[in-house]
Design a protein that fits this description.
Blueprint: E1 5-11, E2 15-21, E3 27-34, H1 37-45, E4 51-56, H2 61-68, E5 74-78, H3 84-87, H4 94-106, E6 112-113, H5 118-150, H6 163-172, H7 178-206, H8 212-218, H9 226-236, H10 245-251, E7 256-261, E8 264-270, H11 276-288, H12 294-305, H13 309-330, E9 334-336, E10 345-347
Parallel strand pairs: 1-4, 4-5
Antiparallel strand pairs: 1-2, 2-3, 5-6, 7-8, 9-10
């Protein structure tokens, strides 16, 4: 029976450094490959015997992982903050990094992170692109408001971005330079373009067979809409990856950093080790969810009475995580239990 070999891969834009080691740590082969799919596949086909590989999580990891997966007995992607053994070394180089990745893998010390299936990652890429489009949309809206304020024009903030109101406003503007009128028209056109684009992207995601039923179940939770449900489904992937609600809350970045040494405990601000896309969406959802749920409203009001509005938002966001995880795990809709005091809610 052929023995297993362990391969460390250090990924870069133009090159990939690799190191092949045996279980005892002996270097079998090492070198550099051109960073192209064809070169990588040809190299993988020539590797003798079963092998497992390890690489860091970078912008290039996705296509490398997908290209090598059919040839490997196993592939692991490293958790960036936990791979400090590489960045803190006295000597650092592509060859050294590949060797250390192989060593961590063969010694079963490699800090692995979750790699979602390709189909989920492809849809997640569309959702993140949609979020970028929305940011551009907001910039255009702010640009229109700024141009009007610079020109000393009054307008209705609530109606400004409506098509009919904006056309009437543009026709009745006085003492406004021609250049400003042109910029207003261009900005409004760009705003409408970004608005229609993001709507098409969301509609396409919701219609996906992989997401349709799951998103519909998540949207039964009061205060959870299409975007929150899509973000949860595509950023989390399999909800079974979390052993408890605490782990899910930590992954979403809704808890503080914890340090303890010599019997002294310290809790810092909200941890930066989180999924920032999920954190942002949950915090925004927590601000409006109490309007749709009496239970969440009671939680928010109770925390606000203690004098900290931001903390109240975080508590509501954590409760939303528990709801989302429960519904996603059980695969059933969300119900209100009248038997519980105070109008508590639970996943059916």
């Amino acid at each position: 029976m052929e023995s297993m070999t362990y391969i460390g891969l250090d990924l870069h834009k133009r090159s990939i450094s690799y190191c092949v080691k045996t279980a005892s740590g002996k270097i079998v082969d090492e070198g550099t490959l051109a960073s192209s799919r064809m070169t990588l596949v040809e190299w993988a086909e020539e590797l003798p015997g079963p092998w497992v590989g390890a690489m860091e999580a970078t912008i290039f990891t996705g296509w490398v992982y997908d290209a090598l997966l059919p040839y490997a007995s196993g592939l692991s992607v490293g958790h960036p903050p936990m791979l400090k053994a590489i960045c803190c070394s006295k000597k650092k180089g592509d060859k050294i990094d590949a060797r250390k990745l192989a060593d961590l893998l063969r010694c079963d010390l490699f800090p692995e992170c979750t790699m979602l299936p390709k189909a989920t990652r492809d849809l997640r890429r569309v959702l993140r692109f949609r979020n970028q489009v929305v940011r551009q949309l907001v910039r255009m809206k702010n640009t229109i408001s700024g141009l009007l304020m610079e020109s000393g024009q009054s307008y209705s903030k609530r109606k400004l971005h409506g098509k009919r109101y904006f056309a009437e406003l543009l026709a009745n503007l006085e003492d406004v330079p021609a250049a400003v009128l042109e910029l207003l028209g261009l900005s409004h056109g760009a705003m409408e373009f970004f608005s229609s684009m993001q709507k098409e992207l969301v509609a396409g995601l919701v219609a996906q067979p992989l997401l349709r039923e799951r998103v519909a179940l998540l949207m039964t939770i009061p205060g959870v809409g299409e975007i929150t449900a899509l973000t949860w489904a595509l950023e989390v992937g399999d909800p079974g990856r979390f052993g408890s609600v605490r782990e899910a809350i930590s992954y979403c970045g809704l808890c503080s950093a914890h340090r303890e040494s010599g019997g002294k405990e310290y809790r810092g601000p909200i941890s930066k080790q989180r999924n920032k896309h999920l954190q942002t969406m949950l915090v925004e959802a927590a601000k409006i969810a109490p309007q749709w749920s009496e239970a969440l409203r009671a939680i928010r009001d109770r925390e606000r009475m203690r004098g900290h509005h931001n903390r109240a938002t975080l508590v509501v966001a954590r409760k939303l995580v528990s709801y989302l995880l429960a519904v996603d795990r059980r695969g059933t809709g969300f119900e209100t239990s009248a038997s519980r005091a105070g109008g508590e809610v639970r996943a059916a």
